Amino acid sequence: MSHTRELSQRLNARHADLLVHGGTAITPNGAERIDLACIDGQIVALGELHRTWTAEDRIDATGLYILPGVIDSQVHFREPGLTHKEDLEAGTRGAVLGGVTGVFEMPNTNPLTLWESDLKAKLDAADGRAWCDYAFYIGGSATNAEHLHTLETLPGCAGVKVFMGSSFGDLLADEDEVLRRILKNGKRRMSVHAEDEARLIERKMLAEASGDVCDHPNWRDVESAFKATRRVVAIAEETGRRLHVLHVTTAEEMAFLAQHKRRVTVETTPHHLTMHAPECYERLGSLAQMNPPVRERHHQQALWQAIQDGVVDVIGSDHAPHTLEEKAKPYPQSPSGMTGVQTLLPTMLNHVSAGRLSLQRLVDLTSAGPARIFGIEGKGRIALGYDADLTLVDMKAERIIRNDWIASISGWTPYDGMPITGWPIHTVIRGKAVVRDEQLTETPQGKRIRFLETNTNHT
After folding, report:
1. How confident is the model at residue 1 (pLDDT cuts 50, 70, 90)?
2. Active site residue: 133, 196, 318, 364, which one?
3. Is 318 one of the catalytic residues?
4. Is 399 helix (H, G, I), strand (E, B) or coil?
């Protein structure tokens, strides 16, 4: 029997693999009290279904909101080469426990992800071990610039990621001519870490002289970010390339990027929306150290205003763990980065509870936005025919984030001890409840994310 005929028979019989009933779904129409029927990993019916449909499995979502599965489009899972602080299994396990159903992983591993063989090695490593769906970035570099138009079309590739600063070796692309070569060779939206390497080198003596992590946003100052952003946006306009600027942190950049939205999309992170200098450095020391830095409160307020104004397109966690031993090194030898994939949704739900944004806007930033700007197939909304990726949350649940909840190999979070209102309860990936009542219930179910602009026939 053909798949289409079998599906038709099951639709006629009104028998689902999974029926989610009693909750409030955030759909393109807004908040709706509807049930969802899922067959073969897809949403096949919406409406009042619980009395007329049967199912192999049911989730009673009474009192819960049903969100499209959260997509974290910036994580560093450190595999291969740095698995003493994170790996694909632990990172994706933390993702699903935090309500995340899909991730884009970054290329600054060891070896770097620069070539087809590097990408294939990561895809092979994720197969059977990843708890959520996944894609991997190819790094844009002087060494592979002329090959990027082909590399970016490989199945499982999330696109091209460029580091203008805060990187090393072949992954650092800090010169305009190298950026121009990279931007000319490809069509997909290119993601960029925009800090000006020359200015960072010039100003590092300030950090070395003080030895105080409170000077992190002074070393990596506003101009180091703003200068790089202006440079790469100008080259993107010259070459006609779409651009995605990652982890924007400054009021100046947001005002500038608001004038370039036709071609440029914008990310910010929960850390920059939740913490501010100098308080976070005084309280957490180097645990609050990341690149670009957490800045003063007026910059944080500008990020929130940019969310309100529609300038920000997505929220990514920039999950980038280091061990506590590494973080304990004297500043500035202490590495930058912190965990985030597991706390992305809880911290943002807490902001929803505090009235800083609506649940509908959060869905746009964490589900519909990533799907729209990166061209993800079949994800990002609750609608017929879409993947049954669902994040069910209790907006009244009160929890306290603790280090012992964090699945990351590094085992810590800068939010340890933080009270939260709003919490992920169930995580469903392609119709399978991998987390139920906050507990893992399945084996790893992750598969390669598909994109509209990749060559799915490539072998």
Report:
1. low
2. 318
3. yes
4. strand
